[in-house]
Design a protein that fits this description.
The protein starts with 7 loop residues before the first strand and ends with a strand. It is elongated and about 80 Å long. The chain has a 7-stranded mixed sheet with strand order 4-5-6-10-9-8-7, sandwiched between helices. β7 (about 165) and β8 form a beta hairpin. The chain has helices at about 10-20, 20-35, 60, 85-90, 140-160, 220-225, 230-250, 255-265; strands at about 10, 40, 45-50, 75-80, 100-105, 125-130, 165, 170-175, 175-185, 190-200, 270-275, 280-290, 295-300, 300-305, 310-314. By secondary structure, the chain is an alpha+beta fold. It is built from 8 helices and 15 strands. α1 (about 10-20) packs across α2 (about 20-35), α5 (about 140-160) crosses α7 and α5 (about 140-160) crosses α8 (about 255-265). The protein binds biotinyl-5-AMP.
Length: about 325
């Protein structure tokens, strides 16, 4: 029906094509309408698909998706507390690498260190991916960085925006945050059991949709482009790009991706304040290591951070 959008197909044709009764066809049409698909039915002519809802239904995300595993299994929620939390529960139950948990709304979206992530209904992309990389835990921070590279590349190539990466997990456009990444993992000393890669991207927020404390700090694609953006194609492109970079990382390590990260970053060369290990360090961010750690030239000498909160000082 999607391929024939705007054209009528008779109930008989659909029933023959789907090998179900005409009553069953009618029931499915009603179920689709309840999900927000607009379908016109005319006696003697049949059914005509008019409009597909802008929702992140697995069937929509998986149509034409050319990945090997990322997004090939999707758990969809209209509302959930946190997709990272649900993905973790699924990973504990042995769900496969590449399984995605996606929601239209999160009631307790999480940032790092107990912070919150504002995730209202349909305004963005809130998703988590289960990964099971056979790498040592010390290499895991690279996954956050390669995800930022995948997202920044998609934002640049599909929307022609100047997306910049702030170490370690943020993407900024026009000086405001548009995307945050929360990577959590379960590992023993030398092997990762699973990584939960959580990504939040602000898509169709209007300025008034943000709580007042975020209004000067956050931005959405709609605010930058001045138009609504369809989330389905964006998510598909992101899955494809992410899987390609993740595969590259597993085969060749972070070095190749490091170059791309450097080309799109807004942290290196800047005066920074790093909040890590319960202390605050000041200095100039000078490099990232082959594992994605941030190297800062401080008055006490060069220091490398594998995690931490960076404030850019202008
Ligand atoms: C992050 O934390 O940036 C990671 C955000 C990850 C969110 C995704 S959504 C899907 C998945 N499921 C989850 O539960 N989480 C992940 P952090 O660097 O700690 O930044 C958090 C800070 O960003 C907050 O303290 C706010 O100041 C700000 N913030 C909150 N919501 C925002 C939004 N929608 N846009 C921009 N900034 C926001």
């Amino acid at each position: 029906m999607l391929e024939n959008r705007g054209e009528y197909i008779s109930g008989q044709e659909l029933s023959r094509y789907l090998h179900i009764s005409r009553t069953a066809v009618w029931k499915h049409i009603k179920a689709l309408e309840e999900k927000g698909y607009r379908i016109e039915s005319r006696p003697g002519k049949g059914y005509c698909l008019q409009e597909v809802p802008d929702l992140l239904y697995p069937a929509e995300l998986q149509r034409g998706l050319k990945t090997g595993y990322i997004g090939q299994a999707i758990e969809y929620y209209e509302e959930v507390d946190s997709t990272n939390k649900v993905a973790r529960q699924l990973a504990e139950r042995g769900r496969k690498e590449g399984t995605v948990v996606i929601a239209e709304k999160q009631t307790r979206g999480r940032g790092r260190l107990g912070r919150y992530w504002e995730s209202p209904f349909k305004k963005g992309v809130w998703l988590s991916i289960i990964l099971r990389p056979a790498i040592p835990p010390s290499a895991a921070p690279s996954i956050t960085l390669l995800t930022a590279v995948a997202m920044a590349r998609i934002l640049r190539s599909e929307f022609d925006v100047d997306a910049l990466i702030k170490w370690p997990n943020d993407i900024y456009i026009e000086g405001r945050k548009i995307c945050g990444i929360l990577t959590e993992m379960k590992a023993d000393i030398d092997l990762i059991e699973y990584v939960i890669l959580g990504v939040g991207l602000n898509v169709n927020f209007e300025p008034g949709d943000f709580p007042s404390e975020l209004r000067d700090k956050a931005v959405s694609l709609k605010m930058v482009l001045g138009r609504d953006v369809s989330r389905v194609k964006l998510v598909q492109s992101f899955f494809t790009k992410l899987e390609r970079l993740y595969e590259l990382f597993l085969k060749e390590g972070f070095t190749v991706i490091r170059e791309q990260w450097i080309a799109m970053n807004m942290t290196l060369g800047q005066k920074v304040m790093v909040d890590a290990f319960d202390e605050v360090y000041q200095g100039v961010a000078v490099d990232i290591t082959c594992d994605g750690g941030l190297v800062v030239e401080t008055p006490r000498g060069k220091m490398t951070f594998s995690s931490g909160e960076v404030t850019l000082q202008r």
